[in-house]
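Onboarding guide, step 5: your first structure request.
Type a short instruction followed by the sequence, for example:

Predict the 3D structure of this protein.
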Amino acid sequence: MLLSKSILSSEFKRLAITAGCILSVLAAPGCSNKDDFKQSQTTEVFSQDYNPHMLEVLWVVDDRSPMRKHRDEIVDEAGYLFANIDSQLGTYGQYRMAFVNHDARVGHKGVISPATPITRGTGTLAERTAYFKNEFPSMLNLSTDAISRGFATSLEAMTNTFKTDSRIPTVLVYLSYGDDKSTTPSGEPVISYYAQKLLALKNNKPELLRIYSVNYAAGGQRCALQNGADIDSPGFEDRFNQLAVTLSGETADLCSTGWGQSFDLTGVQLKTLPKRFALQGNPKVDTISVSMQVEGMEVVPPAWAYDSSTREIVFATVPDEGAVIVVTYFPIGL
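The system replies with structure tokens like these:
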């Protein structure tokens, strides 16, 4: 590469000054003990997520007459699950909850009960659980369509009568002794079709949708319909359980005890907001500075430490929702 005379002259001058500085005991005018550039401070910004203190719960109940035979046991187990959901919300969380049956006939499809969904309201957990258990049996006292279409009715409800909020976690609890017989517009595979449709209502975020399926188990008891159940018939597809598995939910035996308490509710309602924030750069530890703003106002951040093994800022307590966390430091190597 060819350099112009002016560039060469400047370069020789810089080298001469540098050499003079090294050799001279007293620094000559123009000498400096610093290089020609200043160290660059790095800034990394993190935004703490928001946690929706709200949960939607839709019970999709097979209310055909055989379910009445096992009604008391179902209501008790559902009450345990309800209590788990309610208690997990903590002090300030809220929910919107309703029932819909499997009847897909015109005029019935997707109609919720009660017409105004149940909310957390007031009273103790015991009082709310008692109210829920009083409401639930009304769903098991109806004579409806002989064909179960739980997928179709739940999608209809979440789209219209129990219109879902795409930002809020939703729990769908399918209770049935039979198989789903919903159809699709052009003959698409039923499981993938309804999985995609339900997820689309949550902006395709799987963490905002939890499916529980409570149905007959292979080789298990027959507590509602004693003979001729779908599971014992040719062509049984186990659709409710399949949907739950496809969407990383859970399944249980309708005739067993304990499913209301055994379902893992971790992460269903509220996110676990992080206390650890990984840096992209590798900082000099003694140069790290952390500041925080909430709603545009400067606030004192929680106590924090730096974990050099993972290059993370670790707060003692979870930073506030929506907090903007600013970390500045000088990287190693400068």
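Each response can be followed by summary notes, for example: The chain has seven helices and 13 strands.
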